[in-house]
Amino acid sequence: MRVAVVGGTGPFGRALATQLRAAGDEVVLGSRDHARAVEAAAELGVEGAVNEEAVRGADLVVLATKAEAAVETACGLTLESPLLSVASELRSEESRSTAERVADVVDVPVVAGLHSLAAGKLTAEPPDEDAFVCGDDADAKRLALELAQKLVRGRAVDAGPLRSARALEALTGVLVGINRRYKAHAGLRVTGLP
Question: Which end of the chain, N or C, is surrounded by fewer C-beta atoms within 10 Å?
């Protein structure tokens, strides 16, 4: 799979690119700054390009920017492939998820997921956790679930329609709070699934 990681020079984008490259995927690391993209990509052994170029020819585009930049960044892209939004706002007054707001400004299917995975945990071996993906387009969700399964030792779990991103994004804040309180690196596993 060819995956474009938009906003890929940040911690999550780098960790994601590292894991996907190790899984045999073709990864293009995107950034607003060409030199920064190329430098980070060289360190990781992947391609680097400005965001607009990175998305060309991708099977799946991962929007890995900070949540506050996600909608604006998505507006600036000409997309031909489904988009996976991984951003989570830890404190938000919005009634709709970041992923739903991104879906309003692009003309491709948007799925959301990977919100419970921390960048730090992805830099080593895949964590013993499940990864959650939601969306309304079956083909886009299939691609995102395929990608998610490469990142964890647990399962890639279909978490329902895109509106479920509200809960998945909020779950990030819960995990951050738990990890701070207990000085841990807790993740999630769903029990009782076949």
Answer: C
